[in-house]
Each structure stands twice: as C-alpha cells, then as structure tokens.
Amino acid sequence: MKGGSAALYGMRAGRGVILITTKKGKDAKGVTISYDGNITLSNITNIPKMQNLYGQGNAGDEIHWKLYGEGMSYQEYAEKNAFNYNGVNTGYDESWGPRLDAGLMIPQYNSPVKDGVYQATPWISNKNNVRDFFQTGSAMNHTLSVASTSERATTRASLSYRDEVGTVPNTDQKHYSGQFNTLMTLNKQLSFEMMANYTHTQSDNLLGQGYGDNNPINQLVAWTGRQIDMNALKQNWDQKDLAGNYTHYNWISYYHMNPYFIVNKNTNSLDRDRLFGKSSIYYQPFDFLKIEGRLGFDYYQHKTFERVYFHWNNPEGEFDQRNTKNIDLNLDLLASFNKTFGDFNVNAVVGANYRDVNWEYNRMKANQLTVPGIYTISNKKGDAVTEMDHSHVRTNSVYGSASIGWRSQLYLDVSARNDWSSTILDPFFYPGGSISWIPTESFASLQNDVLSFLKLRFGLAQIGAATSAYRNRAYYYVESSSYDGVSQMYRSMTMPNAHLRPEKIVTWEPGIEIAFLKNRLHADVTYYEKISSDQIMSVPTSNTIGFTSLLLNAGKIETKGIELQLRGDILQNKSGLNWTSTVNFAQSKSKIVELAPDFPELKAVQVGWTWGIPNQALLGEEWGVLVTTGLDRVTQKDIDDGVVGSGAKLNDVKVASSGLVRSKSGEIIAHVTPKFLGGWRNDFSYKSLSAGVFLDLRIGGEIWSQTMSHSYGAGSSIVTVENGIRERMILPGRDIMTDERFVMQDESGKWVPNTIEVTAYDWFSHGGNNQMYVFDGSFLKLREAYISYAIPSSALEKVKFISKANVSLIGSNLWLMWVHKSNTMHIDPETGGVSSDTRGIGYEQSAVPNARNIGIKLSLTF
C-alpha cells in the first residue's frame, strides 16, 4: 500500500504500508488440524577471497629478501627478519611474512616447545582455515494449528517453535510463539473479534557485529596469519595451566583472542518478548453501516547481556546488561459505510484514533570484575555504569476515506487525516486522492483475443510525520558514570526547536495495468514522483552559542521512480505442464534540491558514518554519497595552468615522490543508491508436482568496504599477491590498478607519466586511500528455489485421519552468481554489518558471510 493509505495509517505510512493479514478459520464447518514443519541446513558459501602464498610477519616476501637479505638464504632471512614465534615480529597480526609452501621451517604458535623454545616446523598454508571455523548451521520449525468454524464463531489457534543453530560455533536462537484469533457473531447487529500473538525469542549467544572485540570475523578475514591451523585453536581454546588459569592459547598474544574462546566465553545473550493484538466490537444497525470500537496494542521487552571473561583489551573482564520496554497503545472508533445507489457504489470510513507510546530503557554495566566470570553488579570493581531513560509520545487523530465506484469501471478514492502530536506544536492535515478507470469495462468492443483488460490510474497524496520525543524542549540527561561518587547531569548539545513543523511528503503516481491473450500476459507499471520537504534534522553550528547543533525544518528531496511487473502464463494446461514467469523491475532516482535556505553555507548533512567516512545528503547530489579523502587527479585547472606535461591526461592519478598515491579531501568516492533492482521468478507445475526458481538482480549502489581496507593493508586479501607482485618491484598502472593512469612530478614540477616503482607492501600497507576500498554493489543471485509434491488424495485414503499432505525441498540464498569486477574479494554486497537502518547504507564491515540454506518442508492437514 502506498501514499493513499495515509488516512488510515497516518504518519507511519510515510514510506508506504506493508499490510499483514493473519489467518482465520475456514468457512467449512467443523474442526481442522494442520501441521507445518521444516528442517533446514545452512553452510557458509561466500567467504571473501584471500591469498594463500604468504603467512604472518613483516617484510618476508622475496623482494624484501633480495633488497635486504644479502648473503642469507631465504630460510635464514625469513627466520631472522620476517617471522619467528620465539620473538621475531610475533606482534604482527598481518600476512606480510615469509612465503608459504616453499620448504621453510619456522617456529610457530603450535610448534613443539623444548626447554621453553618453540621448535621449527613446516611453514605451510591452511587454505581453508577460515571456512574451517564455521560449522553447518540448522533451523527446525514446527507449527501446529487448530481451526474451528460454526454457525456463530470462527476461531483459529496455533503454536510454533523454531530452533536455530548458527554457522558460527556456539551461536543459537530459539523462537516460541502462539497465535489466537476469533470472530463471534452474537446476533444480527453485534459481533466480536479478538486477535493476539505472543513471541518469545531467546539466545545464549548472538555473535557481535562491527569492529568490536566480540566479533572474531575481524581476525579471521582481515588481521590474520594465513598459516593459522584452525583445528589447533579449536582443540586448545580452553587450555589451562597447573594453577587452573586459562593460557589463552592463540596464534598471537596481542590484539586478538582465540576465536573459539570469544564465542564460548565472551558471549552475548538475548531475551525478547513481544505481545501484540487487537480486540474489536462491531455494531451493524443496517446492512450498509458498521460501527467498530477497537483496541490495539504492541508490547515488547528486549534484554541483552554481554559478558567478557577476558580480552587483551580488558583483562579483568566486564558485563553489560541492557533492557528496553515499549508499549504502543491504539484506540479507534470508526464507522464503515458500503451501499449501492443505482450505478454508484460508495464505500467510506470515518474514524478517530488515540495513540500512546511509552518507551523505557535501563542499563547496568561493570567495566571491571573482582572475580572472573561472576557477572553480578556486586562483583564490580570500581564504579558501576548505570543508565535510565524513557520517552512518552501521544497522538490524537481524526480521519476519513471514501471510494466511489461507477458501473465497476470508474473509481474515485479520497482520504484525509488530521493529527495532533505531542512532539509538534501545531496540528497537521494531509489529504490524498486517486482515480482509476477501466476502459475495457466502459467499451466492451476493446476486449478481444489480444486485449483482455486495461486499467488506468492516477494518485496524489500528502503525508505528514512528526518527530521523536523531547526535541522541542530542553532536555537533561544523567551521565552514565559518576564523578567521585556523585552523579552528573548534562544538557543535550542539540538546541531544541519549539516551532518544529511536521515533515511533509507529497507524492503523485500514474499507473497502468494491462492484460493480453485472455489474461495470460499481464503488466503493471507505476511511475511516481515524490517531494520530501521540511525534514527535521540536526544541523551543525558554532558551539559559541552553547550548542554544537540545532534542530530545524530543512531539506527538500525530489525522488522519481518507476516500478514494473510483468507476469506471463507461458504454458497453461489443467492436466499437463504449467509455467508462470514474473519479472519485477524498480528504479528510483533522488536529488537533494534544498537543505536549509536560512543557512546558505550549509551544503551537506551527515546521515551515516563509519571509520571516519560520512554518508552525506549533499546539495545538488542524489541522496547518499560518501564524502572523504579520495584520489588526487589531474584537473582541468592543472591543464589550463600549464603544469601538465607530455603524455599526461585529465583525471590521471597523481603520485607523490614515494610512488604512493596522493590524497585529496572532500571527494565524493561513492553513490550508495542502486541504479535499479530486478527479479525474475518462474513457477512450474505438473499435476501434483510443482517447482520454482527466483533470481535477484541489483545494479549499482557503491559500497565502502572495511574488509577490503583492512585485508589490503594486512596483506591477507588475494589482491596483494596477484600476478606475482610480491616477488618484484611494481609500477602502478602496469602491475596494479591497471584501469588507471598515474602521473608524477618531474624536476620542473610538471605532471608526467609515472615511472616510480614501489613494493607491494608499501603500496598496500602505507599507500592506502579510501577510494581504493569502494566497490560496485551489483550482483546477481539465485535467491531461492523449491520443488514440491502434493500427495494425491487417493494415496491418503488408507490414512483416514490425514486429508492433505505436501512435501517440499526448499532452498534460499543459494548462489551468488555474479558481482562487479571492482568487488575484488567477491564479498556479498548484502552482508553489511554496520547498521540495519539508513545509517548503514553504503558500508560493509566484517559481517558473518551469508549462508546457503537447503531444507525439507512437510505440511499436513487432519
């Protein structure tokens, strides 16, 4: 549901509505029992591409040996200068060490120890060590439902259980849920409906994300030694000395813990309860009029408990417990009217809504523990960290909508809503309307063997949105830690605004639905334009006024897009083969046309950030650009000023005297919005057998990758060894980044073609630039496939208590078939790992690789 849904759903419909309809009891009288179950196995399929030629250490490749190892054999140079677990470069969590599988013998972390000295063992690669860390995950689902239908009541109840074991060791999640809904007819005028849904989610350990200490993916893929034997780490993670203390057996005694220690001892548990539902009483004095009184609620409680037994960054351990509660209460009184007047049918709704949302948050944390592994506040060392916060938002609304149809061919829909929000001073009103016409109903002669159906539509809507709590008044917070045992208060450094206006979204969209060849070919096309204005945003300002930013209504974004769906019944045969093919296409383009007219110096607003790289709303650009240090290139000004010599061209990359690239601040290095999205679904059926496959396509949408940034610098990426670049001096443009041209300054200061050679180590470890770690997020995926068999009723006759049975083989996220060539490590563009909201768009950061899921599903009806 798009903009026209504003009247019923209010400011929450600003970006459209996804309407979920729960199942109810069937019309057939009696009791029906159903069971649905499936078991799915998951395996990591898309590990970033890593090199297997060089191991842990520093300056251990052949070019460094040739430059600095005069008179030494490679064995002598490697052991004395590059890596040796007895003390040579053991602090390097990088793979710039000696060549692997070259016959070298080097003392390592898992070597035998004699008289306190690690003995030399074969220096060999472990090509599958990252994959060896992961395990086969599984998911088991069971749902049992009962439906009952009688003359006066329709009731359905269900119980569900889901048990998941993650692909990362000792990660899990369990879901328990129950659903109940009933509709009871009391008499001709009165009826009652109730629906409730409860879900409990529990996990002993959810893997940490991002660059935190509890995310082992960082050391597996980026900061790592490519010679690591994962089995040795697995077998010895809980090794203890004679005193009973953990030895913290690991491949390095700095920065990183054994990944198995992290997932087994430094855990993060989750408990979440959610209860939502509604209850309605209907009074229908006439066939055409129904009055409903409705109470709806959505309550959840979310608790996380993060434990750190030991980490090099926090050897005394810690814990962090956070609790969040939220209840969203809605009361509605509405009247529905549906009546036909001659050629006209009128369907209308008027109503009023009261919404009350309360949110609570509290936190209790100990930064150090007195006794390891005791996670209670009484075991804290030093001051505890405590936080409490809350918010309360209330909204009153009146709304109405009407749909008028004429002869089942011409329809006019109008809607209107007015909201009074506690977060905005003034009330705000927003209307909407649409009109649709079916010419094939108006002119019967249009229908023929070619044209089956034609519908034209046009919609226009305005939607308003308030803001979060306490942004229009000064608000004080309690500091989470105390000073000398005394709590501290601090004021928000964002200046409030008592005169905030609601955000406004105006959208219009024409569309057409058309069907051909007796409805076997169907197309649905929508074009839309949307203007989002009066965005409530925080704008930086000078702290001389006592605030670092201020809230104001600013920003105007124009968005244009098209959505297309084509569906074709290519084969139709009731007793034979059927084939339906569906293609979806969506394209959206946006532009920031205005930020803050009262602050002309404001050219950008930050909407996301990671690793010092902001995602900005930049005036004149599309929404979402990454602006940071980029490659310094030859400009037209350089050419006009005569500082470009023979052979150099516009946009050539400049290098410094060191041969490494020069950087330039304030460059746009990425546009994060995809150019378009597409999907192609094919469904087949033959008698009791059905099958289907779905392909998912994305073109465009650039991503800055922390995995690329760190694994390039640490020498673990496959890019750092390609074409033998560690065995010789290399020249940019010839040996690396071959799609670019590079220039240097000659003695006269002019830019000329570069001839400065460098080592691969210097290039990747010291010469990085943020723009080098951006890849095009395009991909083509085999998203899902299935094959299903409905057991014929004749085969079930002997099993009298089963009326229907269906068994299926299902699969999802099956194959990353293609990525853009700039995605050098073949990273899944959908892994993300920064944030699940708009702040995380355009970034990739050490997330667990996605898994392929294959399983069996069984459905039974009794």
Keywords:
globular, four-stranded antiparallel β-sheet, 12 helices, 22-stranded antiparallel barrel, single chain
Brief summary of the model shown:
This protein is mostly beta strands. The protein contains twelve helices and 39 strands. The longest helix is centred in the first third of the chain and has 9 residues, at 74-82.
Structural commentary:
This protein is mainly beta and 862 residues long. Helices cover 9% and strands 49% of the residues. It is built from twelve helices and 39 strands. The strands form seven sheets. It has a 22-stranded antiparallel barrel. It has a four-stranded antiparallel sheet with strand order 25-26-27-29, with no helix packed on it. The protein has a three-stranded mixed sheet with strand order 28-33-34, with no helix packed on it. A hairpin with a 4-residue loop joins strand 21 and strand 22. The chain is globular and about 105 Å long. The model has no long low-confidence stretch (mean pLDDT 91).
Q: What is the SS-derived class?
A: mainly beta
Give the overall shape. Answer: globular
Specify the oligomeric state: single chain
Computed over alpha carbons, the radius of gyration is: 32 Å
Total number of beta strands = 39
Low-confidence regions: none
Our measurement of the CA-to-CA distance between the termini, rounded to an integer number of angstroms, reads 35 Å
- Largest β sheet strand count, sense and barrel closure: 22 strands, antiparallel, barrel
Number of helices: 12
Beta-strand share of residues: over 45%
Helix fraction by DSSP (H/I, runs of at least 4): under 10%
Provide mean pLDDT, rounded: 91
